Automatic annotation (TrEMBL):
<feature type="active site" description="Nucleophile">
    <location>
        <position position="356"/>
    </location>
</feature>
<feature type="binding site">
    <location>
        <position position="303"/>
    </location>
    <ligand>
        <name>S-adenosyl-L-methionine</name>
    </ligand>
</feature>
<keyword id="KW-0949">S-adenosyl-L-methionine</keyword>
<keyword id="KW-0808">Transferase</keyword>
<feature type="binding site">
    <location>
        <position position="287"/>
    </location>
    <ligand>
        <name>S-adenosyl-L-methionine</name>
    </ligand>
</feature>
<dbReference type="InterPro" id="IPR023267">
    <property type="entry name" value="RCMT"/>
</dbReference>
<dbReference type="InterPro" id="IPR029063">
    <property type="entry name" value="SAM-dependent_MTases_sf"/>
</dbReference>
<dbReference type="InterPro" id="IPR054728">
    <property type="entry name" value="RsmB-like_ferredoxin"/>
</dbReference>
<dbReference type="GO" id="GO:0003723">
    <property type="term" value="F:RNA binding"/>
</dbReference>
<keyword id="KW-0489">Methyltransferase</keyword>
<dbReference type="InterPro" id="IPR001678">
    <property type="entry name" value="MeTrfase_RsmB-F_NOP2_dom"/>
</dbReference>
<dbReference type="GO" id="GO:0008173">
    <property type="term" value="F:RNA methyltransferase activity"/>
</dbReference>
<dbReference type="Pfam" id="PF22458">
    <property type="entry name" value="RsmF-B_ferredox"/>
</dbReference>
<feature type="binding site">
    <location>
        <position position="256"/>
    </location>
    <ligand>
        <name>S-adenosyl-L-methionine</name>
    </ligand>
</feature>
<keyword id="KW-0694">RNA-binding</keyword>
<dbReference type="InterPro" id="IPR049560">
    <property type="entry name" value="MeTrfase_RsmB-F_NOP2_cat"/>
</dbReference>
<comment type="similarity">
    <text>Belongs to the class I-like SAM-binding methyltransferase superfamily. RsmB/NOP family.</text>
</comment>
Length: 423
């Protein structure tokens, strides 16, 4: 924490926590509303509050364990003392004598003395799931890597600029960025500048997109004149990338059953300058618009609705918003969507199934069950597909990315090829 804190900062952050911590909705949406209701807050105040709120959510299990009574203020003070880099001398003038005494006791509690779930910051139900396929050391590594904030990655829209040009453009305005290690279109920024006010963003030269999801475009590898379906296009992050990889040729249908999300694609599409992308609202995976395209599509992307646990660095509140029941429901959706999406493929066509989850039940198990029931589909080797694109990333047949190993969100992808229809 670089700014000098005042009691007013503590009050502001406490008020924000009071709004967000009950987690009645996603934390980022609650925080956005808090900022809308407190319009006078400046840029630095907002950045401070966001850092505090997300920091507390990332370390919530530990903090709740060491405070006497978990209130927004006690969690805030404990977070500042333990995780923000502030020392007690700086904090003491801002707090009461009793609070100062409690903070000193709490500061002495070592993280390493805590149970695995607290050290890894995973709820019991998730710990139980992870123990089915990971040992405790690997669980701890995973948990710790998900407690760090995520970097900000950009994707360059090659229709409008090269990566080198964008890096130079940003540098001129004091924004430092480096090429991402794997995606040829990615830039990893230093820090979190407000990039959506930059000219390069407003003119469509860049989009915010984690490197892991950029790699999906290279696994799918659409050719210029292909017919492509992005089955769960949402706000179109991946569709836009596919459009640029196809040099604005061919045709991409961006399906989603959420009108709100597809509406968010519209301004991005306009900025991108692409003319090959067609958003289509569908009621569900069995919509007539889907059925009409059966057997006609060269490439299908299924960026399936999932638990999102691989994005805990950005969305730490998912630990409280997901549950074993919600994951069961997601698995049913994933199975149904994959099955409908696969029907779209021409013989020889390619489908990429992806999630931002690290749970095999949402990933390998969905794909392996699908292939067992649909033997005309074969599994392609993701490492080989990436090698064909000159991307040296070998995580085996499936692409499985983890923050600690790859610097990306936790991410999974499988590539399938459709064979001839069974007679
Ligand atoms: C992981 S998100 C996709 C994010 C998106 N690809 C992007 O890059 O921004 C999953 C999406 O699936 C959509 N979805 C959920 N059920 C669906 C269904 N039955 N058919 C199509 N889309 C669905 C959700 O609305 C959500 O936008």
């Amino acid at each position: 924490m670089t700014m000098r804190l005042t009691p007013a900062h503590l009050d502001m952050a406490t008020a924000a926590l009071r709004t967000v911590l009950p987690l009645q909705r996603p934390a980022d949406s609650l925080l956005r509303h808090f900022f809308q209701d407190n319009r006078k807050l400046g840029v630095h105040d907002r950045a401070f509050i966001a850092e505090i709120v997300f920091g507390i959510l990332r370390h919530r299990f530990f903090l709740e364990r060491v405070v006497e009574i978990a209130t927004p203020r006690s969690l805030l003070l404990a977070y500042l003392a333990k995780f923000s880099g502030m020392n007690l001398r700086e904090l003491t003038p801002l707090v009461s004598e009793t609070e100062a005494k409690r903070l000193a006791e709490m500061k002495a509690v070592s993280l390493e003395s805590q149970p695995l779930g607290v050290q890894a910051e995973f709820p019991e139900w998730l710990l139980e799931k992870l123990r089915e396929f990971m040992d405790d050391g690997a669980i701890l590594d995973l948990g710790r890597s998900l407690q760090a904030p995520a970097p900000l990655d950009l994707r360059v829209n090659t229709q409008l600029a090269t990566r080198e040009e964008v890096i130079e453009l940003l540098r001129k305005d004091g924004i430092e960025g480096m090429p991402t290690p794997y995606s040829p279109l990615g830039i990893r920024l230093t820090g979190k500048p407000a990039i959506n006010r930059h000219e390069a963003f407003m003119s469509g030269k860049i989009e915010v997109q984690d490197e892991s999801s950029q790699l999906l475009g290279y696994l799918l590898a659409p050719r210029r004149r292909d017919m492509v379906v992005d089955f769960c296009a949402g706000a179109g992050g991946k569709s836009l990338m596919l459009g640029a990889l196809m040099c604005s040729q061919g045709r991409i249908y961006a399906f989603d059953n959420s009108e709100k999300r597809l509406n968010n694609l519209k301004p991005r599409l306009k900025r991108s300058g692409l003319s090959n992308l067609h958003p289509q609202l569908i009621a569900n995976e069995n919509d007539i618009k889907v059925k009409r395209l059966a057997g006609k599509i060269d490439r299908v992307l299924v960026d399936a609705p999932c638990s999102g646990l691989g994005t805990l660095r950005r969305n730490p509140d998912l630990k409280w918003r997901q549950s074993p029941q919600s994951i069961e429901e997601l698995k049913c959706k994933q199975t149904a969507i994959l099955s409908s999406a696969a029907n779209l493929l021409k013989p020889g066509g390619r489908l990429v199934y992806a999630t931002c989850s690290f749970l095999p039940e949402e990933n390998q198990e969905i794909v392996e069950n699908f292939i067992a029931n649909n033997p005309r589909f074969t599994l392609l080797n993701c490492a080989e597909l990436l090698r064909q694109q000159k991307i040296p990333l070998d995580t085996g047949v499936f692409m499985q990315l983890l923050p600690r190993l790859h610097g990306t969100d936790g991410f999974f992808a499988a590539a399938l090829e459709s064979g001839k229809a069974q007679t």
